[in-house]
Amino acid sequence: MFSFSTIKNYHFQLQQNQLSCTDVVNYYLQRIKSNQVLNAFVEVYEKEACTRAMELDNLRKKGEPLKKLHGVVIAIKDVICFKGHKVSAASGILQNFLSLYTASALQFLLEEDAIIIGNCNCDEFAMGSSNENSFYGNVLNAADHSRVPGGSSGGSAVAVQADLCMLSLGSDTGGSVRQPADFCGIIGLKPGYGSISRYGLIAYASSFDQIGIFGRTIEDVSLLLQVMNKKDLHDSTMNNEPALLTGVNDKNRKYNFCYLKETLEHTSLDTEIASEISAYFQTLRNNGHTVSEINFDLLDYIVPAYYVLTTAEASSNLSRYDGVRFGSVTDKMNDLTDFYFENRTKGFGKEVKRRIMLGTFVLSAGYYDAYYRKAQQVRKLLVTRFDSIFSSYDAVLSPVSPTPAFKAGLKNNDPTATYLADIYTVIANLTGIPAISLPLFSHSYSIPFGIQVMTNRKEELSLLQISDLLINIKNN
Ligand code: GLN
Q1: Mutation test of ligand 1: which of 78, 201, 310 has the most ligand atoms closer than 8 Å to its C-beta?
Q2: Phi, psi dihedral angles at 158 (to 5 degrees)
Q3: What are the pLDDT tens digits along the chain (476 aa)?
Q4: Edge to edge, what strands does the sheet with 395-399 contain?
Q5: Ligand 1 pocket: which residues have CB below 6 Å?
Q6: Is 62 a catalytic site residue?
Q7: Best CA proximity match to 171, nearest among 186, 193, 144
Q8: Ligand 1 centroid, distance to 309 Cα (angstroms)
Q9: Strand locations in 326-460, DSSP E?
Q10: Beta-carbon neighbour count of residue 447 at 10 Å?
Q11: Where are the beta strands (DSSP E) in 262-337?
Q12: Exposed (0-12), middle (13-18) or buried (19+): which is 361, by Cβ within 10 Å?
């Protein structure tokens, strides 16, 4: 085990010649090999990572100043394109597909000399909450192999949890970074919509998708966000100005927090999670912050709205996998309809098919007004409601998931139960605000869980400062 606490500390040790990038890459490659049972990686870029480490070691020896991510070992979710490397969204339909270009967010990491060690397993097309919907099989939670790591970015979460890399990228459409971070006891950040370019991220639901970051410290997660938070002309939905990410952190500042009453009283919420979080609110008050309870009558509408809108978008986004534009091709066909039918039947897994069907249904003439339009109205209401909440409060605190990491196989046959468990995370994607999960607690099942913090749009800086504070308060 290397003993660097942060990237800054790692860089210090590199400059003192206490270690090299090559040592570190070898260490992670070794860890990946001895933890293969976790099934966290789809592919490990062994040769490439070693070569890059050597190049960086040579650069350093020549006295070149270190770039921001010099030698930082990062894994990416199998939905992020990396030119010349396979990307499949953990789907059979994209098996052996090679990326034609590199995602902008990843390009920004490479330009700062990060080392990409491999791509991580996930739920097919990022649809799921347990990493049990992958073409490559389940990912195991390193804290308890009988439990799921969460999803859909389960592999990326486990890669950090099990110390197989320093940081990793996931994608978060409705909680796929925050929930697996919660299940694995690490930090998971979903930036606000438009803060990180989506160019080169395989789409699930475009108006919800965001690349997110897994890490162990707020300092490192902030640095990665800073590097990726750049305007990109390839993504027209980006914010015009990058978020303000550096600023003085006034450690004595007292915050105005709130929580939505209905979230803590929800019948699905594990009692231990509810009581730990309530007790923690009291700790915050004892530290001079206010934590107010507010009423929120929209909670029951958010999961339905999320699933109507995301499946609608998914049905459209996934129409390109037809064997003509993208996707593997059958040799068994009689006519064109048959050709599409065979390709899509063979290529997609069960959950993806379910969502395509649901999405085409809610968009179809006759049902559009009843479902799709209604869900959009709910989304609008939520945005307005959260705007008004943030005019009085600095941040909203909530559980991340109603339960801690559950046993593998438990929810396999119950998609509705799985969907309903997204109740706390989808709000941030419906409204486009930044949100983070912080690993503050441990459950009597001997697994970790955390708390979610949400701030207003473009307030990533305040989100990170608050996160720092919350972790410190917990540790003191
Ligand atoms: N669990 C949610 C879903 O299945 C979240 C997915 C995600 O954020 N990619 O849609």
Answers
A1: 310
A2: -65, -35
A3: 567 899 999 999 999 999 999 999 999 999 999 999 999 999 999 999 999 999 999 999 999 999 999 999 999 999 999 999 999 999 999 999 999 999 999 999 999 999 999 999 999 999 999 999 999 999 999 999 999 999 999 999 999 999 999 999 999 999 999 999 999 999 999 999 999 999 999 999 999 999 999 999 999 999 999 999 999 999 999 998 777 777 778 888 999 999 999 999 999 999 999 999 999 999 999 999 999 999 999 999 999 999 999 999 999 999 999 999 999 888 877 899 999 999 999 999 999 999 999 999 999 999 999 999 999 999 999 999 999 999 999 999 999 999 999 999 998 788 999 999 999 999 999 999 999 999 999 999 999 999 999 999 999 999 999 999 999 999 98
A4: 41-44, 115-120, 73-77, 167-172, 210-215, 187-190, 435-442, 448-454, 395-399, 256-260, 290-294
A5: 126-129, 152, 171-176, 204, 310, 422
A6: no
A7: 193
A8: 12
A9: 395-399, 435-442, 448-454
A10: 18
A11: 290-294
A12: middle
pTM summary value: 0.97
What is the secondary structure of 185-209 as a DSSP string? TSEEEEPPTTSS--TTBPPSSTTT-
Q: Coil, strand, or helix at residue 115?
A: strand
Tokens at 12, concatenated:
């210090």
Provide the residue count of the chain.
476
